[in-house]
Design brief:
By secondary structure, this protein is mostly beta strands. The protein is built from no helices and 66 strands.
């Protein structure tokens, strides 16, 4: 390559491209550099059969190169030099006579138009127009130049540039083709800190080894407005979404584009928006959209857009599912609501074992036949359109239950409670069990469990048990009754148990009862109070207990059995044998003139004893007692009786006991009387003596309780020193040496009243009278006051029921003695002088 060959000027750049004279094809197939270092970069070379290496640790720029051969036999080196965040340059370079291509960092003292704060520089070789530089920093100024080279390596005319900035970080350079040019050198110098929506002037120098060529025409490039950020899409309905973004300073208009990714032949839908939000409608389900928002500058040029990928919802799932189940035909019709966009539906039901059955329909119903009893089916509906949506499977339905299996019975003989059980069935709301007895009486049981207790069964019956399952679906569906299971209840209890004693024999008793339903055999057991055990059995309603002893009181139990169950023992009437004869009978004198007692030993089996006392004149007296003693009332005193006793159990009587003689107590004294001596203050009691050799006792008892006794063998007794004013009772008893008689009839005796005390007199001279007063005397019925002279002549007296009276007409001038006498019923008190009164003289 020499200067005469250069017909065009070239740009003032430091990147040098040399072409070797020999047409050697480069053999570099693939090289990668990653990450451009920010430090200065040494020369890199890509040579024939040479590799590319990283010279510094932080230098990780990307260079990719491949070689191919064109139809002219020329090698084409396709390569990519990428500076992250600056540009990407996919270019094609024809280099059949080129041996090396390299890029280097320009020195800090670069001249010409290659200026910029960062000093970053690149050169791209392309064989066509346009050349595209992408991945640039947004809002950054770049200086561009293009050099054309022919096949001989000569520099040709610098082309005119046509550039544009389709985005805030991309510049596209266009130029007119240059005759005989096979290669263009696009030189770009980075100028950062460019402003958005700002115009910049660009021009190109062409150069060859001889120097710089002429400056190209200036091209004005205007940067675009940056796109909005924070673009977001919110789905409003199935076919509508709302797009929002942040506003960009200085931008009044935005352009939004919507592109359906699955429809490449359809252009995007463009809308200009003045605000920062817009609703888009008519979105198709199951579709991925690319939604871009770009800022529009004052020349109504949209910049690059910020894109957001949005997937519309799939078609809706079925909103409502219902099932019409028929237990009579074992079919189910599944229905569901219409889904917008669906053209086909697939209904799937799955049972509890995971087995699935499906049905496809273009409408909203499907029918499933021959469903199995007792299953729980899960229903899923898949709506099919551009895509599919399946319901969540929460809808279930159940088929009618299967008939219960394994019915079993357990009978409790003692209570006649019957437990009827069976295996559980699916989809059962409850079970309905019945028991039918031998009289066709039905007993029902509703339960949610798998068993029923029949507590009201009747003894002695045969029962058949049946059960059916009731469907949970609320339809009139059930499984029908199972086959009957038969069982018998325990026999009924024997009733009306009676015991019949043989009073003529002490060794047997007959037990009878009424027939018990369901009983085949009866067993009677008896336990006595002396012998432990007696028993008998019978197939009818009576049996006889033998070898019994007298006086046995038998507790009788009877049980009925049917061979499987035996009733509880039923206590019957007590079986009583003939009582034993009372022994050791003896008469006991009660020393009562009207009664006598009889005692004996207890006789086995006796409930009651009856005693008999017979007088010599044939008079009979009886007594009855439950204890071994009784008293004969109303006997005559002083008499002799023949007595005996026998025992009875109120059914049979024992034989009579041995006879004994009973002597009654002596009679009480009669004709009792008293003779009073008021002056001596004593009484003489007397009575009629009936029998010689008897001792009498007279008892005198005052009203306060103390007694005075007098014993004598005669018919009288004297009581002296009686207390004044007392009431006495006098009784007399007779003692024959063994018994004392009853007291005689009581006689009341009143002693003389006590002498009045505290006598006082008061003289009234004007009337010559005296008022006499005294204290109350015991036993007094009234009082008499007497005035006497010295010769004991009564001069005046007065009588009173109280404790005072007035002596009147007293003589004058005398000294009088005043006494007060208490008057009694039989005797009076003494009349001793107790007080004096002196009357006035004759002139008074």
């Amino acid at each position: 390559m020499n200067g005469s060959d250069s017909e065009a000027s070239h740009s003032n750049v430091r990147t040098t491209i040399s072409v070797a004279p020999r047409p050697v094809q480069p053999t570099v197939n693939h090289v990668e550099y990653e990450k451009l270092g920010t430090q200065a970069m040494d020369a890199r070379s890509i040579t024939q059969n040479a590799s590319v290496r990283v010279l510094t640790e932080d230098d990780r720029s990307l260079v990719a190169a491949t070689s191919v051969t064109n139809r002219r036999g020329e090698a084409q080196l396709s390569w990519l030099l990428r500076f992250p965040s600056f540009f990407k340059t996919p270019n094609t370079v024809t280099a059949s006579q080129w041996s090396s291509v390299w890029c280097l960092e320009p020195p800090a003292t670069s001249s010409g138009q290659r200026t910029g704060s960062s000093g970053l520089f690149s050169e791209s070789l392309v064989d066509t127009s346009p050349g595209t530089v992408v991945g640039l920093l947004p809002y950054t100024q770049f200086t561009l130049s293009v050099m054309s080279v022919n096949t001989g390596g000569r520099m040709l005319v610098a082309p005119d540039l046509i550039s544009s900035s389709p985005s805030s970080d991309t510049i596209v350079i266009d130029w007119d083709p240059v005759d005989q040019a096979v290669l263009y050198s696009l030189v770009m110098t980075l100028v950062d800190n460019l402003q958005q929506a700002t115009s910049y002037s660009c021009y190109v120098y062409s150069s060859n080894p001889a120097g710089l060529g002429a400056k190209s025409l200036v091209k004005t490039i205007r940067t675009l407005v940056q796109p909005p950020n924070n673009v977001a899409v919110t789905e409003l309905t199935q076919g509508m979404a709302r797009v929002t973004w942040n506003s960009v300073s200085g931008v009044l208009l935005y352009q939004m584009s919507v592109t359906a990714n699955n429809k490449p032949g359809f252009p995007p839908v463009l809308k200009n928006v003045t605000g920062t939000a817009m609703n888009i409608s008519n979105l198709e389900p199951c579709t991925t959209y690319t939604i871009g928002v770009a800022s529009i500058n004052m020349f109504l040029e949209p910049g690059e857009s910020t894109n957001f990928t949005f997937l519309t919802s799939t078609i809706s799932t079925v909103s409502s599912i219902s099932v019409e189940y028929s237990c009579l035909t074992s079919t189910a019709i599944v229905r569901w609501g219409v889904v917008f966009g669906a053209t086909l539906y697939r209904a799937v039901i799955t049972d509890g074992q995971g087995r699935s059955f499906n049905c496809t329909s273009t409408n909203t119903t499907c029918q499933f036949l021959m469903l199995v009893c007792g299953e729980r089916y899960t229903v899923r509906i898949t709506a099919i359109g551009n895509c599919e949506s399946t319901s969540d499977g929460t809808y279930v339905f159940e088929t009618a239950p299967c008939p219960p299996k394994a019915p079993q019975l357990y009978r409790e003989c003692s209570t006649n409670v019957i437990l009827f059980s069976w295996d559980s069935t699916n989809n059962t709301a409850y079970y309905f069990a019945i028991a039918v007895d031998s009289d066709q009486l039905v007993t029902e049981c509703l339960t949610v469990d798998t068993s029923c207790f029949f507590t009201d069964t009747v003894c002695g019956k045969t029962y058949s048990f049946y059960v059916r399952s009731i469907y949970t679906g609320g339809l009139d569906c059930n499984t029908g009754y199972t086959d009957g299971v038969v069982i018998k209840t325990a026999p009924c209890l024997p009733q009306n148990i009676y015991t019949t004693a043989n009073c003529a024999s002490i060794s047997s008793a007959v037990i009878t009862w009424h027939e018990a339903a369901g009983a085949k055999t009866y067993i009677v057991e008896a336990r006595g109070n002396r012998k432990d055990f007696y028993n008998c059995s019978s197939a009818n309603t009576s049996c006889t207990l033998t070898d019994l002893e007298c006086g046995e009181s038998l507790s009788v139990w009877i049980v009925a059995t049917n061979g499987d169950c035996t009733t509880d023992p039923v206590l019957g009437e007590v079986a009583e044998t003939v009582p034993c004869i009372p022994q050791n009978v003896s008469a006991v004198k009660t020393c009562s003139s009207e009664s006598a007692s009889l005692t004996w030993n207890n006789a086995n089996g006796a409930v009651l004893y009856i005693g008999t006392a017979t007088h010599i004149d044939g008079t009979v007296h009886t007594c009855a007692a439950m204890a071994p003693e009784c008293t004969f009332p109303n006997l005559r005193c002083g008499e002799t009786y023949d007595v005996k006793v026998k025992a009875t159990n109120l059914q049979c009587n024992s034989s009579e006991s041995q006879h004994v003689t009973l002597q009654t107590a002596p009679c009480a004294p009669v004709r009792v009387g008293v003779t009073r001596d008021c002056a001596a203050n004593h009484v003489i009691a007397s009575w009629q003596a009936l029998q010689a050799g008897s001792l009498y006792m007279a008892v005198l008892q005052d009203e306060h309780g103390p007694t005075v006794n007098c014993s004598t063998s005669s018919n009288n007794c004297t009581f002296t020193d009686l207390l004044c004013g007392m009431n006495y009772n006098l009784t007399v008893t007779r003692n024959d040496g063994q018994c004392r008689s009853l007291p005689s009839s009581s006689i009341q005796i009143q002693s003389a009243p006590c002498d009045p005390q505290n006598i006082t007199t008061v003289l009234q001279c004007d009337t010559n009278t005296a008022n006499v007063a005294w204290a109350v005397s015991a036993g007094a019925n009234g009082y008499t006051a007497i005035a006497t002279d010295r010769q004991q002549q009564r001069l005046a007296s007065c009588h009173s029921m109280g404790t005072s009276c007035q002596l009147t007409s007293l003589p004058c001038g005398m000294r009088l003695n005043v006494t007060v006498q208490a008057d009694g019923t039989t005797c009076n008190s003494s009349s001793q002088p107790k007080a004096v009164v002196e009357t006035g003289d004759s002139s008074c």
